[in-house]
Structure formats: structure tokens, C-alpha cells
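fyi for ur records
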Amino acid sequence: MATILFNGLASTAGGGITYLRNVLPRLARWSSSHKFLALVPPEHLAEYRLLAGDGIELDTMTTGNSVRRMWWEQTGLRSYIIRKHVDALIALGNFALFGASVPQVLFNRNDVHFSSEFCAQKVTRSTLPPACSCSASCPELCQ
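which gave:
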């Protein structure tokens, strides 16, 4: 029996909430062969309790602001994984657990910061004079 952790602490709007609302009710059909844990934001715990079926353990963590949450996810989450005997991590908050001791799946719903178009537009908007073109100043960003 595998223990699978869904880290949804950052799921306070948009894709993370939509994902948990749709997945939590469906996990019960596999709860006889796997154990599911879901870390959810405290402000949404009551809603997720209504959606989670049997065999799904919901937990929450009060971490404060997003910087503190990210810090806890890189430090405290490691001991949580060990304490709960987690076999796989599903990270819903756009950031992976660096050096994770278990396999993980990262849901990155906002990859705009890694696209060449974003980089080219950012350079054009913030560092180049209006009359200058991106391709003349930094061709590597415009390929």
C-alpha cells in the first residue's frame, strides 16, 4: 500500500482549488490499495472535508504568509513526509520540494516565467530604450 501526499497548502485560488475539488472525491475508489493524505490551507479545510471520501486523511498547517509557507515546504515538509511514511509527493503549488526523499510530481500551472516570450518582453519593457529592439540588443532571448 503506497502513501501518497497531495501538498495543496498553496491551493487558495485557481488551479489548485479546482484540482482538489475534482480529485478528492475520486480518490476514495483507490483507498483500499493506497493511503491518501492531503495538506490543505486552513481556510479551506471545512470545504475539503465535505469533498474527501473515506480513506483520505486531510491535514493542515498554519504557516503564515506565502514566504513562510514556502520555507516550511522546504524544511518542515521533509519531516512530515518521514513521520507520515509518504511514498510519493504530488506538489500542487508550482514549487517542488528540492532534494525530495520520495518521487514527486510537480503541477506547474504558471510557466510563463520560463518562456522565451516572457523573457524577451521583460527585457524589452524594463531595460531597453523605447527605440531599441530586443533582437538587436539580446538576440539569445528572441530565438
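The chain has five helices and five strands. thats all i got for now
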